[in-house]
Amino acid sequence: MDLYLPIAEMSVNALVIILLGGAVGFLSGMFGVGGGFLTTPFLIFYGIPPAVAVASSATQITGSSVSGALAYWERGQVDVKMGGVLVAGGLVGAGMGQALFRLLQDLGQVDVVISLIYVLFLAVIGALMLRDALAGLAARRSGRSPATRARRHLPWVAALPWRMRFPRSGLYISPLAPLLLGALVGMLTAIMGIGGGFIMVPAMVYVLGMRAQAVVGTSLFQIIFVTAATTLLHATASKTVDIVLALMLLVGGVVGAQFGVRAAQAMPPDRLRLALALLVLGVAARLAFGLTLTPAEPFALFEGA
Amino acid sequence: MRPGTLRLLALLPLWMFLAGAAPIGLITQLSQARIDINTTFRGAELLVFGAIQYPRGATPDQLPDIAVVVRGPSAPVTVRQKARIAGIWVNAQAQRFESVPGFYAVAATRPIAEIADERTTAIYEIGIRNLQLSPASGGDDSIVRRFEAGLIAARQKAGLFAERPGGVQLTRDVLYAARIALPAAVPVGDYAAEIHLIRDGRVLASTSAPFVIDKSGFERWVYVNAQEHSLAYGLAAVSAALLAGALAAAVTRRRW
Questions:
Q1: Do A241 and B237 touch (CB under 8 A)?
Q2: Which of A9, A112, A228 is facing B90, going by the closest CB pair?
Q3: Is A300 domain-assigned?
Q4: Global ipTM
């Protein structure tokens, strides 16, 4: 079934888009990640203009994060204070990211830079996750409980001034650290069309040293606001939000997430983390390969630029 | 000079007079004056048809050629050549063209090179190679040509530039018809179909018919709102996403 997208100005196969949303939803239900890091590259690969792919993917993530965040909210696993600080940083970052995105568009390098940033982040995060998952698996096999971390958070985080209490997260740290983290992730949201959960969650654990129970809920809470702000920024500045595309992705995503949650319950958590790590590394490898591949089209056209 | 030739020469002013009094003409019509892009738009086909009006209704022995040119709104385009830098393909050297039609298709009764010489086809911009794309100044001529070839190849691959020799059918030497395929990726805007009648390498008559390609219904509504009420549109997109998410949460509540 072909459907014409009013903003992307092209005809797409609705089934493919909904299936993509479903596959990403499945993964997000299974691993608790937003899946933007899969949606955006695939949309671009499918032929959707990068600017539209990034903006519409952000809109889709807003929706897909809500159901998860609500579930965590009911269990009291959202640190609103910490989330607020992260959102504040995220909004600043999203604004900067939007400006950077425009600059890259003017330079005609947006697709290359997006791919490069993806490769870099996915490779680093994937490698970290792989190390963790393998360590967990090895520990379980030998019957030991995984080694507990000696340090709560990184020393430079503890050294920052104006410390504040974040009771739900079990932290007494300066808000500057989460503010910076939020800004970094917000910037990536605007440039890459991702929620940033796969960066935010490890950073909250390893950099800030947050209590594990509050991490995912707070990350989702933050993602809702930052992706919503990103949608608004893209809608007003570059006018590249395709509401039809975003809703199609959402429909697939909502259904896919159900199956993902079910699948996750049948799988041991360490295996799950290993699978996610391999998936992330796989996407990174594919993108890196794509960058070095001799392009079929030696020329690229940029309209109106 | 032989007498026969002399007689022919004597007839020439008379022929010119008659031709001038009743010049060869073209009547043209399009299948649609407006092409709507709606939700199910997958491209369209435009039928350009009409009749040749010969002086005093007499069809000549030597049939003229017809060239049909359909062009869309022009816009500046920057072409960037990809180059390998440190193993990675990036967009390197660039060349800007000031007026590139968003769509350009030409159909003719015969290959364009056989119909008229380069000068004539260049004047009337008949044929993709004859498009005046107005390259921004400063570039080396050979480099500009290389980028122009790249631009044309990319547009041809997308179906936005097309050349179809033999795409115009003549029926009973009088009626002509050409089908122009418009792909799903056609830009919206004001279009024109130009029809040229060519004989002995000269354009004897030209006519043109305008048409519009625009989004309609829901697509138009979404597009206009995104452009003119962008903040409200953005808020609507966010609300729709939030609602869908909340709905999904409500449906699956029993799980949590």
A1: yes
A2: A112
A3: no
A4: 0.80
Does the distance separating the beta carbons of A304 and B237 come in below 8 Å?
no
Q: Which two tokens stand for residue B170?
A: 């003549």
pLDDT tens digit sequence for A87-108: 999 999 989 988 888 888 778 7
Residues B181, B159 contacting (CB under 8 angstroms): yes
List, for residues A143-196, the tens digit of each pLDDT value.
655 555 545 566 777 667 777 777 777 777 777 888 888 898 888 888 888 888
Q: Hey, what are B31's tokens?
A: 């299948």
Which tokens in the block code for residue A28? Answer: 């997000």
* A298 within a domain of the structure (yes/no): no
Averaged over successive runs of 10 residues, the pLDDT of chain A (305 residues) comes to 82 88 82 77 82 87 82 80 89 90 80 82 85 82 59 66 74 79 87 81 79 80 88 86 89 81 75 82 85 76 67
Residues B157, A231: C-beta atoms closer than 8 Å = no
Structural domain that includes position A68: 2-292
Establish, for the pair of chains A and B, how many residue pairs have beta carbons separated by less than 8 Å. Answer: 184
Helices and strands in chain A: count of H runs, count of E runs:
11, 5
Q: Distance between CA B163 and CA A116 in Å, rounded?
A: 38
**Cβ neighbours for A280, distance < 8 A, ≥ 6 positions apart:** A37, A122, A125, A126, A129, A198
Which pLDDT score, from 0 to 100, does residue B14 have?
52
Degrees, nearest 5: CA angle B148-B151-B157: 140
In a domain, A67, yes or no: yes
- Does residue B236 sit at the A interface (CB-CB below 8 Å)? yes
End-to-end distance of chain A based on CA atoms, in angstroms? 33
Q: What is the tally of structural domains in chain A?
A: 1
Residues of chain B with pLDDT under 70: 1-22, 138-139, 252-256
Contact B154, A303 (CB under 8 A): no
> What pLDDT does residue B1 have?
46
State the nearest Cα–Cα gap between B234 and chain A, in angstroms: 5
Going through chain A in order, the beta strands assigned E by DSSP cover 2-5, 10-13, 164-166, 171-173, 299-303
Q: Does B136 touch chain A (CB under 8 A)?
A: no
Q: Which domains does chain B have, with CATH numbers?
A: 23-73+100-215 (2.60.40.3880), 216-250 (no CATH)
One-letter amino acid for residue A119 of the chain:
V
How close A135 comes to chain B (CA, Å)? Answer: 30
Question: Is B189 at the interface with chain A, CB within 8 A?
Answer: no
Residues of A in contact with B40 (CB under 8 A): 2-4
Whether B234 sits inside 8 A of A112 (CB atoms) is no
- Name every residue whose Cβ is closer than 8 Å to that of residue B221 and which is 6 or more positions away in sequence: none
Own/partner contacts of B245-250, CB < 8 Å, gap of 24 or more, are: B245/A62, B245/A63, B245/A64, B245/A65, B245/A66, B245/A67, B245/A70, B245/A250, B245/A254, B246/A66, B246/A67, B246/A70, B247/A254, B248/A63, B248/A66, B248/A67, B248/A254, B248/A257, B249/A66, B249/A67, B249/A70, B249/A71
Residue A301, domain member (yes or no): no
